[in-house]
Specification:
By secondary structure, this protein is α/β, with parallel strands linked by helices. Helix content is about 45%, strand content about 10%.
């Protein structure tokens, strides 16, 4: 009960004040004790309008918070310029060389293994897993990644699935360099899609298209088949279904918790001291995101492999998902919010929200004048 009260209080603190979203000077203090929040309490119409336009905790889940500028005076600006020269002129070329070397080693080994060892399935899969872990290690090295893993390394066992919070596609790379997971992931275009359909396909990864409703049944069937296979790679799922900015966790989809198997939570927390690892796919491509990481000082991250969880007697899949989300949120220091991440793809346009906000402000002013 204490945990529920704590979560509720955190959400209350995270809700913004409606008055902050109205134009300055537009609200006059009424006589007596009547305030705008009182009007919202007694008017369902105003309450609904306010809830539709405020910048609530849902919007904040998908905002990248820019760092505070520190090169604001004549003393610090030269140091900032020196840092830019070091990052772009020295570190970035070296990191490109490291990543290029990694791809050369990987491709020169992967294709012979994949095509020449077709008759030795177990040996081929073991070598392919090791090579995928190797190229992921090169990727992490190209960001000067400082990743600290806590807890026992995941093992290959049937009837288990790993779930983690999701900040960026690099979550997969960070986790993959330690263990070659088979992941369920949105199908991407470009060079990422090419890697999905060739190299990652050999790990048993499962792809889906978010816009195709029929893909849900196909994915659910493949998930059940995969988790019951003794020789399959460990299955990794990001149940939020979208990238969140590593300050919050949105609702977990229940699919991963209906498989009748053990769920192993993984908490991933990035330190934003050098770079924000959040990938906003609406504002930048994954290539641009990688370049941002490669031109930063370092990517600092902690990964916790948490205690496996099983469905309790009388517990529903939704309750199970919320319990696991609570475990991950507490360990990574993230705030839980009661939103479905898929709403990110159906939000109203900024112009529409601005019109609603102006209309709401005018209606409140009229009502205050009538009082």
């Amino acid at each position: 009960m204490n945990k529920l009260n704590t979560s509720s209080s955190e959400l209350d603190l995270d809700r913004p004040n409606i008055e902050d979203y109205l134009p300055s000077g537009s609200i006059q203090e009424p006589h007596g004790e009547l305030r705008l929040r009182d009007l919202l309490d007694i008017s369902p119409t105003l309450t609904e309008a306010a809830g539709a336009i405020v910048d609530d905790s849902f919007t904040r889940c998908f905002k990248s918070n820019p760092p505070e500028p520190w090169n604001w005076n004549i003393y610090l600006f030269p140091l900032w310029c020196l840092g830019v020269v070091v990052r772009y002129m020295i570190l970035f070329p070296l990191r490109v060389m490291v990543l290029t070397l990694g791809w050369i080693v990987f491709l020169s080994c992967y294709f012979p293994v994949h095509f020449l060892l077709t008759g030795q399935e177990k040996l081929r899969k073991r070598l392919e897993r090791g090579l995928v872990e190797l190229i992921c290690s090169f990727f992490v090295a190209s960001w000067t990644g400082v990743v600290k893993y806590h807890g026992p390394r995941p093992s290959m066992r049937p009837k288990q699935v790993f779930v983690a919070n999701h900040t960026s596609m690099i979550d997969f790379i960070v986790l993959e360099q330690m263990t070659a997971f088979a992941v369920i992931m949105q199908k991407h275009p470009g060079w990422v899609g090419l890697l999905q359909s060739t190299i990652l396909e050999s790990l048993g990864c499962i792809w889906f298209n978010r816009s195709e409703a029929k893909d849900r049944e196909i994915v659910a069937r493949k998930l059940r088949e995969h988790v019951h296979g003794a020789d399959n790679n460990p299955l990794l799922i990001f149940p939020e279904g979208t990238c969140v900015n590593n300050h919050y966790t949105v609702m977990f989809k229940k699919g991963a918790f209906e498989l009748g198997c053990t769920v192993c939570p993984i908490a991933v927390k990035y330190n934003k001291i050098f770079v924000d690892a959040f990938w906003n796919s609406r504002k930048q491509s994954f290539t641009t995101h990688l370049l941002q990481l490669m031109t930063s000082w370092a990517v600092v991250c902690d990964v916790w492999y948490l205690e496996p969880q099983n469905l309790k007697p009388g517990e529903t899949a939704i309750e199970f998902a919320e319990r696991v989300r609570d475990i991950i949120s507490v360990r990574a220091g993230l705030k839980k919010v009661p939103w479905d991440g898929y709403l990110k793809y159906s939000r109203p346009s900024p112009k529409h929200r601005e019109q609603k906000q102006q209309s709401f402000a005018e209606s409140v002013l009229r009502r205050l004048e009538e009082k």
